[in-house]
Amino acid sequence: MPVLTDYQVAHYRDHGWVAPVDVLTADEATALHRALVDAEHAFPDDLHAASRNNTHLVLPFLADLALHQVILDCVGSLVDDPRSLLNSVLFIKEPGSNAYVSWHQDSTYMGLDSSDMVTAWVALTPSTSASGCVAMVSGSHRDGIRPHVDMYGTENILTRGQHVDVDVTAAVDIELQPGQMSLHHPHLVHGSRPNRTDRRRVGVAFQSYIGAAVRPGRGEHHVLPIDGRPVDPSFVTVPAPDGLCTPGGRAVRAAANAALSDVLYDGADLRRDY
Ligand SMILES: O=C(O)CCC(=O)C(=O)O
What is d(CA 193, CA 267) in angstroms, rounded to the nearest whole number? Predict the structure, then answer.
């Protein structure tokens, strides 16, 4: 039975997002966050503020989350024949940090030929208005990709600090408890504000699950197959990690991140480390 109700699917089509969806129990999410913190301490060179892309390729517990059946079932209701996961990003805002994410549309720089994809953002700690949850501009996915300006900015944790100028007064704060997720369309304008609480705000964005008909528009894309079915050979398929930050996993992640950086920073004046 599909996890998303017809109402939720209709909400996604209409608004460009749907939330909250329960994926893990609060205890499971808290245990995952603890495992993440342990890994951050054990592997500081692999996991730090400028190294948060594609951690599911070196952390088996995040690969397991990426392939969680509830997430895959939801994705299957929103994407035509999903076959693979493109990337992941750990979006972490430390307590009281000014880190924010400028208003943007995900697929602007993703280098794919189609928007048949969806991002799943899973909260590992409370993501609230006070802690700088993701805010979505409902319905903004309907008019295609708008012009973006690269702003960078030291507190902006988005790669190019890309920014789109839209009226965000009606943006909806997507509050999530640990273990809940939101799903958003690649054309949806969204962003997030600083964390004004004394707790870490941690979310992992699986960005994005892509349909079987999607093809690279430019660059090389490394994808994790999600259910064993074939992925088009125009993509480079990568394995889930066989242990925590193993040499093999590190090599796979490094290649995926290098390719991702080439795609995301195509035509940019400045390339950041992430
Ligand atoms: O986590 C955030 O604050 C922003 C997330 C985001 O931009 C995304 O998932 O596409």
Answer: 27
What's the mean pLDDT when you consider all of the chain? 94
Confidence label for 148 from pLDDT (cuts 50, 70 and 90): confident
Q: Cα–Cα distance between 86 and 135 in angstroms, integer? A: 23
Q: How far apart are CA 211 and CA 215, in angstroms?
A: 9
Among protein residues, the one with the nearest Cα to ligand 1's atom 5 is 134
Q: Which two tokens stand for residue 74?
A: 């939801």
Q: How far is CA 212 from CA 13, 147, 175, 240, in A?
A: 19, 28, 31, 19
**Per-residue tokens: 53:** 């892309």
Tokens found for residue 125: 């700690």
Q: Given CATH 2.60.120.620, say whether it is the number of domain 6-264.
A: yes
For residue 66, give the nearest of 94, 44, 89 by alpha carbon.
Answer: 89
> Cα(220) to centroid of ligand 1, in Å?
23
CA distances for 172 relative to 4, 90, 136, angstroms:
20, 21, 5
Q: Mind listing the pLDDT tens digit for each residue in 172-231?
A: 999 999 999 999 999 999 999 999 999 999 999 999 999 999 999 999 999 999 999 999
- Ligand 1 contact via 17 beta carbon (within 6 Å): no
How far CA 98 is from CA of 134, 153, 193, 270, in Å, comes to 14, 11, 8, 22
Q: Find the 101 Cα to ligand 1 centroid distance in Å.
A: 7
Amino acid identity at 51: S
pLDDT value, residue 2 = 64
